[in-house]
Amino acid sequence: MNLPNFYIDDIIKRALAEDINYIDLATDYLLDDGEISTAKFIAKAEGILCGIDCALRVFTLIDGDVKSEVMIKDGGKVAKGDVIATVTGRTKSILKGERTALNILQHMSGIASETAKYVQCCEGTNCTVTETRKTLPGLRALEKYAVVVGGGKNHRFNLSDGAMLKDNHIDAYGSLTNAVAALRAKVGHMVKIEVEVRGFEELWEALNCKADVIMLDNMTTEQMAECVKIAGGKSVLEASGNITLANAAEVAKTGVDIISVGALTHSAKAFDISLRISK
Asked: Catalytic annotation on 210?
């Protein structure tokens, strides 16, 4: 999965404009333009690295003369004290990009590291881990990329990727069966339809409608296991709601095909990384 430079550059430029505005008071008034330094990205915890190319792109956009060397690539395991990469160039340029670069790298590595923990919980089963649309505005593609780096797979990127009928859609339309029929009559042949169900009665209805994917919403593991038996492989089953690292393994063992976890993107803790500069 490769993210295009124009997309990454747009995010970085907006972040830099927010952070620097038009002058870095401390850096611009304190340091000479010709001063050169090298800085090291150093891991301060254990986890999965993600976003190093995006982070280094920050310095390139600030100053095309800044050079970098990568020691650990995206997807690599890092331990406390590992040197991830170095940047060499004008001290001013490095200091101006430091915070933006770290923000990106820490956030993406945090998501990748958290995803890897959930993936490990599902080992030995056929269950895959995905995120949801609960992402930070403007950063969705970076966050979904981080999930893939952590070993997970992506759910839909946006509302145009697939048709998901959640409880509010069904309640608003008045009937699960009628909603699926009306939607299928209008969408193209490439569109898959997912239906959220809250119990066995709705599960049977979704199966009779031949929904491509059925989301089991906030069910117990006992209910999930029963849904797997009822479905008999006729539809892809996605478990969602109140899934944590404490119960992910138990959920995966029920036989569901997918676990979707909103916390991967909306609550992942930033991975601790520092940038240490030396002349």
From this structure: no
Catalytic residue among 196, 202, 205, 238: 196
Q: Where are the alpha helices (DSSP H) in 21-139?
A: 25-30, 52-62, 91-121
What does the alpha-carbon distance between residue 154 and residue 49 come to, in Å, rounded to a whole number? 18
Q: How far is CA 195 from CA 84, 183, 215, in A?
A: 43, 11, 6
Q: Can 279 be counted among the known catalytic residues?
A: no
Residue 238 designated active-site: no
DSSP string, 85-110: EEEEEEHHHHHHHHHHHHHHHHHHHH
Distance, first Cα to last Cα, the chain: 36
Quick check: is 99 catalytic?
yes
| Res 212 pLDDT > 80 | yes
The pTM is what? 0.95
Residue of 9, 19, 28, 99 marked catalytic = 99
The question of whether 196 is a catalytic residue gets the answer yes
Active-site pick, 9, 19, 167, 217: 217
Residue 29 burial by Cβ neighbours in a 10 Å radius (0-12, 13-18, 19+): exposed
From the candidates 14, 67, 80, 166, which is the catalytic residue? Answer: 166
- Mean pLDDT computed over 137-143: 94
